[in-house]
Amino acid sequence: GKNVLFITIDDLRPELGFYTGERSIHPDMHTPNIDALASRSLQLRNNYVQQALCGPSRTSFLTGRRPDTTRVHSNSLYFREVAGNFTTLPQYFKNHGYHSLGMGKVFHPGSSSGDDDPLSWSQEFYKPEFCSWLEYEQCVWPVTAKETEDCPLPDVGTADEAIRSLQRFAPGGEMDGTNFFMAVGFMKPHLPFIFPEEFLDLYPEEEISLPTNPFVPSEYPEVAWGNPQLLLRCGDVTPLNFTGAANETLPEWKQLELRRAYYASVSFVDHQLGRVLDELDRLGMRDNTLVSLLGDHGFKIGEHGGWGKFCNFDLSVHAPLMVSVPGDTDHGVISNSLTELVDLYPTLVDAADLPPITLCPEDSSDVDVCTEGASLIPLVADPEAELKSKVFSQYPRERDTVMGYSMRTRRYRYTEWPSFDAVTMTPDWNELHGVELYDHENDPDENQNVWNDS
Ligand SMILES: *[C@@H]1O[C@H](CO)[C@@H](O)[C@H](O)[C@H]1NC(C)=O
Ligand SMILES: *[C@@H]1O[C@H](CO)[C@@H](O)[C@H](O)[C@H]1NC(C)=O
Ligand SMILES: *[C@@H]1O[C@H](CO)[C@@H](O)[C@H](O)[C@H]1NC(C)=O
């Protein structure tokens, strides 16, 4: 069978070199390694996440089930405790003779994953050393080589571990002959934007621009707004007296500084990814290894005045996804069909020729192995096939008493914010706290909520 290299990148927008020209984005992203992988992958360009928050999104794509099934809508709940003893994606490979191993940030760490879900892995999950690098001293923090001497950035530690691990499975290595499922989770470009200072050189200050829409849409329902909670923690943001309320904006210099730092963080992660993919090549394992790469959700860098995810805007729920299937996608396959991260589990199982995963029944709490997604492998042969006419995301508000359910079709994004019962996981569609409708044909940046236009 084929090995699987499963890569997750935190808060990665579909704003990468190979996407250039598609949106009002930075015109010259420097992501040569992601671009090279994309050039030999099935590129899912209209891919959406189930919830724009790490824990719920990761729990969903790692179990192949939607947030109302995993019952995880926050970063504090563990699906095995609150929903069911589901077989995860790495665990499924493990159960089929693979050696599964993970490093960095794959599940949301801590109690919300029972400390990286030990049942998923054949060996102890690897966590890089953190030192002070996770603290919110500053949101924009270019570091010098000297500053990282005693303690490397976590993503460097994760890439180092991935390289060491690949060597164990290479010809002549101690695990030679065993298939691996290796999950490598990079933590940047998540806030705070901490990266080696030289990555700023890729983005000259004069080339950084302000977002064109630093405001919420017209007729925007208050309930839909997601406060930029993480940004507000940073020592370089607190003195600005910014509260993060809808239509409040940061000073322009700070917006430019943050956008530049986000781009530099993306290029830093791209560089670490390149080190891992180069090693895969050097060891001669590319042709026998499926590689998937995803962003766990999108991110706003000043658009709508937002700094984070935490909502249902397209910018928060649209995220990169690609799958490299050696022999089948070597020249790159671009698909604009609608897809969701919940589809990745059955897709990788399909690509690896493991026994297929069946669709979950409505109540799947007692079903160990099933999925609420669908394999995307048919798109390799027919990239514009309409596997799905609509895809779904959601975001809770008011301590989970309101749930924003959002549906994306090729043309529209439609969202309703009904009252929600978090015990029975049921919305009350008769009690709406807000409605949004954006017409992407006329308004790709979602600046006009036209829900009230008959
Ligand atoms: C969950 O399933 C695993 C096997 O997949 C089993 O070892 C474990 O005991 C189960 N846990 C519970 C609480 O049932
Ligand atoms: C925010 O600003 C936009 C553009 O000026 C305006 O259309 C909208 O009504 C404002 N919304 C709120 C909630 O202030
Ligand atoms: C922030 O508020 C404090 C206290 O009200 C004030 O002293 C300071 O000048 C304000 N800073 C800015 C940038 O407005």
From TrEMBL:
InterPro entries: Alkaline_phosphatase_core_sf, IDS, Sulfatase_CS, Sulfatase_N
Any Gene Ontology CC annotation: cytoplasm
Highest taxon listed in the record's lineage: Eukaryota
GO molecular function, one term: iduronate-2-sulfatase activity
Transmembrane segments: none
SUPFAM superfamilies for this protein: Alkaline phosphatase-like
Keywords, comma-separated and alphabetical: Calcium, Hydrolase, Metal-binding, Signal
Ranges of residues in domain Sulfatase N-terminal: 2-353
Obligatory cofactor(s): Ca(2+)
Family designation: Belongs to the sulfatase family.
Record-given protein name: Sulfatase N-terminal domain-containing protein
Species this protein is from: Capitella teleta (Polychaete worm)
